[in-house]
Amino acid sequence: MAAKTQLLKNIRPWGSETTDLLITQGKISKISANQVPSPDCDIHEGDNAILLPGLVEAHTHLDKTLWGMGWRPHQAGPSLQDKIETERRLRREWDIEPHRQSMRQALLSIGKGTTAIRSHVDMDTDCGMEGFEGVSRTREALAGQVDIEIVAFPQSGLLNRPGTLELMDQAMRGGADVVGGLDPCSMDRDPKGHLDAVFALAERYGKPIDIHLHEPDELGAFSIEMILERVHAHAMQGHVTISHAFCLGMPDRDRARALVAELAAARVHIATVASPHRPVPAASELKDAGVTLCAGSDGIRDAWGPYGNGDMLERAMHLGLRNNFRTDEDVGYALRCCTYNGATVMGLADYGLAPGDAADLVLVSGESLIHAVVSHPVRKLVMKGGEVVARDGKSLIELP
Amino acid sequence: MAAKTQLLKNIRPWGSETTDLLITQGKISKISANQVPSPDCDIHEGDNAILLPGLVEAHTHLDKTLWGMGWRPHQAGPSLQDKIETERRLRREWDIEPHRQSMRQALLSIGKGTTAIRSHVDMDTDCGMEGFEGVSRTREALAGQVDIEIVAFPQSGLLNRPGTLELMDQAMRGGADVVGGLDPCSMDRDPKGHLDAVFALAERYGKPIDIHLHEPDELGAFSIEMILERVHAHAMQGHVTISHAFCLGMPDRDRARALVAELAAARVHIATVASPHRPVPAASELKDAGVTLCAGSDGIRDAWGPYGNGDMLERAMHLGLRNNFRTDEDVGYALRCCTYNGATVMGLADYGLAPGDAADLVLVSGESLIHAVVSHPVRKLVMKGGEVVARDGKSLIELP
Questions:
Q1: Which one of A50, A71, A315 would you mutate to disrupt binding with B, by most B Cβ within 10 Å of its Cβ?
Q2: Residue B307: which of A367, A368, A374 has the nearest Cβ?
Q3: Can you spell out the DSSP letters for B122-172?
Q4: Largest CB tally within 10 Å, which of A80, A268, B121, B286?
């Protein structure tokens, strides 16, 4: 926590009227115009820029980005299995070292105003705990710069590779924050076995769950039903996230809406990338039903694909474009998915722009909130717990 | 045409090996490494940046952007008709002056490396020839900076507003380049009448056609059939573009593929925005069938929506994301849609990166071609006919 008092002059919280914001001991202590700084106070002139709470990257893969490794043409074929196998091979051939790479991506994200990251981290019988150990080191190295939550993620399958469940258990014992899962039907060919194992692990360690669900249409809907049954049986309401949930973009809108209502009742969260080439959950439907929708970059420039830059303000734009959002209200909701909703899903305490909230803040130019989303200019200033961690788009720590 | 000889040192044409490129009298005259400049030659150090032929904005609306007018919240309701009527009202209330606004957008585009623009320009019984006159003045003012093609566009309907066809005729007589059309079924409620009028006008002036087709699914497919009949009857093969063609993203893929084959046979082009929230033509299907697919920004920050910035390199990324393109070959094709294919559709002579081609060029950093697409950094240098028109992302002419 920052010992020093900080004063942000002439900033517009969430795009509202210009005011000043005082930070004491790492927390927002006072918001009012024309504050007179105390002599020992650091002053940051905001020039009427918009102040947002720190952006929340709620779904990514820190351990596998190729950022900073030189451009490498995409190699994998179109299927999910192709991508998984190609990545397993390239991890060795290219030396995709999880600590170095997660440092690079996390610092990139800090530069773009992200103050909290939920990262799925691969564990399988090939790479073992390498990913977990590498990202854990990054989490430690960047403590105070960005909050990193680690999801123990069985990328290559859970039951179909004996030994993986033990690795997941080891990761949870070693400090992983969330139990991951992946396509219970199509990956493990044993939805009951897969989900029972995931929920048992979560119960054992008292941790939340985040399950990748790429399964389309009725197959994915079936997996959602199976997940819902277990959310109720294990009283995990409010502690389970389904990532992607492409099936909620299914053609049968009545079926999808009924599932969304059940997800709302079970307080299951959805994480989306707003993929433009897949069906995706309809953001407005989730909002209307009361389901918390958060967002993430997913993989950034990795063996899965060449896109991405970690900018969660740009992600809000993608979410808006994907959902045909045009009004201030709708695009503002897209930004909430990349801020407040991500904080809800990650269970961040004291998140927001009110007195008493942690001073996790990002300053960005814009005539209005929506202007900031659609133009997503370079972030002027990023603070974590009241300390400056990035200026002019760059983390104060150099990329390794 | 530039009288002065120009030498681009250390550039990588289309991402290939580093070389030098000599420009004489506005045309590429020699491409080879280690050229020794003549004494009267301007030298531009490329620092191994990628050289692309000028980006082609093949579908936009220069007359109606709000760029530079201060942020204005979106007002229109969700339907096409809402958007059209809201825009008609706001054009007066907000004074969306076509010359000023088209200058702003065109200069924005030049800064991002665009050297040719096809702009639909509204004409209706309310705004009359104002748009045409304003964009014509811009075309004249920016001659030598960017090629602007004007499509006489009946945005509010053609037959349903008597007098509009006469305005279209007047525009064609006054120097419009392309005859526009719009949703022959759903807008005019008279597909035969609409298309007969459009094709007759094109025949009268010997000009190509570009028809906006938002009509979904089988309705749009029916309009495509009606268009195809007239392409053959009027021997307009190679001179007709269908913009959007959302219906080609219809669920019945066999039906869509059959239509695409007929479009290929009639040499009809497709222009796309790669909208993430609508069905869109499958870019690979068009490519495989031999249909020329070009791309555009559509409206940029206007009464239709808040998005857009005129960056056709970023548009190539959107096209890639929308079509699930990941390999160098596929993303490279997305870039071709925003360069060569746009030039084909606009009938640009001497377009390209070979000796003899016009020196319409853009220089951009990137480890590879695909890296330049996904990161779309600020354009270092833009040339039109061998003259520098933009540096570091900014047109040399200031925005009005």
A1: A71
A2: A374
A3: E--TTTTTHHHHHHHHHHHHTTTT-EEEEEEE-TT-SSSSTTHHHHHHHHH
A4: B121
Which residues from B are below 8 Å from A331, CB to CB? Answer: 306
Give the ipTM: 0.95
Q: Which residues of A touch B (CB under 8 A)?
A: 70-71, 73-74, 76, 78, 251, 274-278, 301, 304-309, 317-318, 320-324, 326-328, 331, 366-368, 370-371, 374-375
- Chain B neighbors of A305, CB-CB under 8 A: 326
Contacts across the A-B interface (CB distance below 8 Å): 81
pLDDT value of residue B3: 63
Contact state of A328 with B374 under an 8 Å Cβ cutoff: no
State the smallest CA–CA distance between residue A303 and chain B in angstroms.
Answer: 10
Question: What integer is the mean pLDDT of B306-332?
Answer: 97
Is residue A312 predicted with pLDDT exceeding 50? Answer: yes
DSSP per-residue codes, B140-151: HHTTTT-EEEEE
pLDDT given at position B398: 84
Average pLDDT of chain A is 96
H helix runs in chain A, sequence order: 80-93, 98-111, 130-141, 164-173, 191-205, 217-233, 253-265, 283-289, 312-322, 328-337, 340-346, 369-375
Q: Do B326 and A305 touch (CB under 8 A)?
A: yes
**pLDDT, tens digit (0-9, with 9 covering 90-100), for B14-68:** 999 999 999 999 999 999 999 999 999 999 999 999 999 999 999 999 999 999 9
Q: B253, B275, B307, B324: which to substitute to probe chain A, counting the most A Cβ within 10 Å? A: B307
Q: Which CATH number fits domain A6-53+351-391: 2.30.40.10, 3.20.70.20, 1.10.3720.10, 3.40.50.720?
A: 2.30.40.10
**What are the start-end ranges of the E strands in chain B?**
6-13, 19-24, 27-32, 42-53, 55-60, 114-122, 147-153, 178-182, 209-213, 240-244, 269-272, 293-295, 361-364, 381-384, 387-391, 394-395
Q: The whole model's pTM is what?
A: 0.97
pLDDT tens-digit profile of A153-162?
999 999 999 9
Nearest CA in chain B to A249: B277
Cβ contacts of A306 on chain B, cutoff 8 Å: 326, 331, 370-371, 374
Res B4: pLDDT: 85
Domain at B55-346: CATH code: 3.20.20.140
Q: Do B276 and A307 touch (CB under 8 A)?
A: no
Residue ranges of domains in chain A: 6-53+351-391, 55-346
Angle between helices B130-141 and B98-111 (to 10 degrees): 40
